[in-house]
Amino acid sequence: MWLTCGCSRFAVFSQGRRAFGSFIDVSGKRRCNTAAFMPEAAGFQGVRDRAALHDFSVSNTDAFWAAVARQRLSWIRPFDKVQDCDLNRGKVKWFDGGQLNVSVNCLDRHVHTCPDRVALIWEKDEPGSEVKVTYRQLLEMTCRLGNLLRRHGVKKGDCVTIYMPPCPLAVASMLACARIGAAHNVVFAGFSAEALAERIRDAQSNTVITVNQGVRGGKVVQLKKTVDTAVEDCPTVKQVFVAKRTDTPVAMTAKDIPLDEEMQKEDVVCEPAAMDSEDVLFLLYTSGSTGKPKGLVHTQAGYLLYAAFTQRYVFNYHDGDIFGCVADIGWITGHSYTVYGPLANGGTTVLFESTPIYPNPGRYWEMVQRLKINQFYGAPTAIRLLLKYGDEWVHKYDRSSLKTLGSVGEPINTEAWEWYHQVVGEGRCPVVDTWWQTETGGICIAPKPSEPHAEIIPGLAMRPFFGIKPVLMDNKGQEATSNDTSGALCIAQPWPGMARTIHNNHQRFVETYCQQYPGYFFTGDGAHRSTEGYYQITGRLDDVINVSGHRIGTAEIEDIVNLCPEVAESAVIGCSHQIKGQGIYAFVVLKKNVDASVDEIISQLNSMVSTKIAKYACPDHVQVVQRLPKTRSGKIMRRVLRKVVEQDLDSLGDLSTLDDPVVVQEVIQGHRELLSKQQQA
Q1: Secondary structure (DSSP) of 529-596
Q2: CA distance 167 to 169
Q3: How high is the mean pLDDT of the chain?
Q4: Between β-strands 280-286 and 183-186, what pairing exists: parallel, antiparallel or unpaired?
Q5: What is the pLDDT of residue 25?
Q6: Closest by alpha carbon to 221, among 210, 230, 212, 208?
Q7: 50-59 vs 61-72: helix axis angle to the nearest 10?
Q8: Using one digit for the tens of pLDDT, what is the confidence trace for 594-605?
Q9: What is the predicted pLDDT for the residue at 363?
Q10: Which value, to the nearest 10 degrees, does the dihedral of the CA atoms of residues 173, 379, 368, 343 take?
Q11: From start to end of 277-317, where are the E strands?
């Protein structure tokens, strides 16, 4: 049984929630009463609207975040200092001296006031078979699991790896770790055994939690088998807890512990650990341009506060709303806006296990109708996919419950935005195109919150959130202060939700985010600031591809491709993709006297990438070339390869630095032949 009921004893430190105000009418005029909009603003002098509140949040940072932290979180011990940060050194500390427990903030205090409120709605792969879990039930589940982990030696400071699909027990696993003071490392349950093993080893996990099988899109996924293979290469792993998602038995090893039956032996009360604000809450791995995944570290108080704060205000979330974020828990969006943000706010959040087109392209909208979802938060990739199936799948279902639509993972194109707004939202739901990253912890730029009836422009993230001060840096490393300009997007001052470091490699954190523009946090993205001061994200500036919202380093793919016995060298770049936003284009140089056909080699490459990383990292196009364009020093000119793939041959630029400019024409000709072959197919 994954759910338990009955009376329980609860440890509650304090109540920390107040009613949420909103925009109100005064004297017949539509304006923003900031104290009603955000209770913390009542004590801020001269703050009468959203713009003034944002100005205050970046100019009086300590006063702003101190008020928000005291209002929004329940503390065991109050903090002594709001922040101690130095971006030049990558030093980030918030709410020093304070102590709290994240699971208490997400569970106990809500059980104290509304134990039977639904916390989770598990939208299982099988349509119409949703499971509702109350705050009381989720707390019981979390406590039982926390006690089980403690009994098996998991202690404060350990890191538990979680390899599970979205389900109540996965959320309870995250919260159980938080309750006993262990960090968690959630790995997307689509990663291969090798990718999983790499993350387990880097996190130094001695405990893994998984399920026997996953179910997605009507297909069974052998997750336990993947874990078995991964653990063979992970000497630190001492135990694997295995829950049942299906009734199919799986082979158990000496390290395996049946989770469901062992949980039932545990007490429903688990004493929460008092955690310092800067203790580690979780690691989450994201790809980098070097090819080695980065284990980004998020800590307790600052992350939870920022996730909760942004979830409430960006989406205009009110108590009693049903919040539908369809992101997998293996990504930062699932962490912040499926789990921690909504639960810290005492909300009802949807766990989506399936796919947008199973059993048909109406799945999202049938779910909206059945569950009466108020805020829907999804990826442009899915929106573009569903757009192709036409409007009839949307019109078939009642979407009158929807109040806000959100977009996450990559910039959304105008056509998809308009369809999302006009067809899905019936022209009445604002679309919040959110920009943020694993590194930022939560949303940094979004159209909301804003004044009532403020304009929203399709395809623009637009406005910085409270406490966020974005800047654009020119090619000389100076701030571009004027509007209608582009540059490297940086953030000029720290904020509570940002990552603190890269696990076991703080120097890499400093070099990646703090050294390129000293004193600023470098996001790796480019942006344009319009004449009105609105921000539009233009894409990555480094060698990282955004595939369906999943960032993957080109070097990571190249490392795998180059392992193929027939491949001499390769170069991987991003390319435009109608559905995924960006696809993967691989240029491959083969060794001499290769016997295998090109089709066989491509099949082998895809199999290797799928096995060692994940299926989404497989190249969409593979072009075999005789040689790659290189400088005289041997550096591959990926800029030239991008221009060829984009068919932007008029702006190839100066080719005089190439060792042999003739190679560019060879690549162009090969690209044309590949396109012709694909069109004929």
Answers
A1: E-TTS-EEEEEESSSEEEETTEEEEHHHHHHHHTTSTTEEEEEEEEEEETTTEEEEEEEEEEPTT--S
A2: 6
A3: 91
A4: parallel
A5: 27
A6: 212
A7: 110
A8: 889 999 999 999
A9: 98
A10: 30
A11: 280-286, 294-299
